[in-house]
Amino acid sequence: MHIMTVCLGNICRSPAAEAVLVRRLAEAGLDHVRVSSAGTADYHVGERPHPMSQAEGERRGYRFPTRAAQLEPADLEGADLVVVMDAANEQDVLALARRPEDARKVVRLGAFAPDAAEGVRDVPDPWGLPEAAYGRMYDQIEEAVEALVTAIVDGTLGQILDRRRAVS
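^ thats the sequence. predicted structure below, dont judge the formating
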């Protein structure tokens, strides 16, 4: 299984979600799941994560070995699940999907949050905001990733995706 996390520039939210997923999947013993990240824009291709995103993540024990990349249509074909951070990212990714089956792989991370029944919350972009915004971003990502990994472990991932599609 390959999960791809996506945000706008691939330096704040999606590398954070990638790092959280990598660690949480390893803790769950899901070594067969590969995680990568990309951005819908080419603003930061080749760059390391944003310093505040990386610093907050490292405080929480995460590692950041990757560099920013731009999402390409072929990336959608190679992924089993594409987890986006907000509605704008979702629209941008869906516009790249060349096949209906690729569009069906796209879901917002907030669909896995405990309060998702009340509507999917976007993960706000902390770029340009104070340090505290990065902490809130990680809190939100960690909460949703925990539920995503649980859904993989207990086999309910498909049900969650179907439920999200029904309300979209």
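The first strand starts at residue 2 and ends at 7.
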